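Pilot study result, target chain (121 residues):
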Amino acid sequence: MIAALNLDSLELEKKKEKVDTTDEHEAFYKGGGKKNINFIYKNLKIPDRTEALQAGGTVKVRFIVNKEGQVTNVRIWKSVEFAFDEEVLRVVSSAQDWIPAIQRGKKVNAYREQPITISFK
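Predicted structure:
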């Protein structure tokens, strides 16, 4: 038995649907990136342990900004030092002033990554 092919369906797959992306955007902090950075540095307290160890570097924290603009699922992606990592988790989790991402006209959950660097000189 010979399999039948529907060539019309192959042609439909080749046609690209134009998608209007004018109203699409990534999740962003109310007031912009500078306001987010100011919030983090204003609220971040360097743990005594981190300072005693002079443990510098860049923590990378990943999280989701959900459809309501809330920060959820906050996780350390790259660690510097345990106490500092915990402080970063606390501060990023408390930053709830986000505008959710929009895709195809609808609010969607979106991953974000925030690097936070600490150095001792």
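One observation from the pilot: The CA atoms of residues 7 and 47 lie 65 Å apart. A full batch analysis is planned for the follow-on phase.
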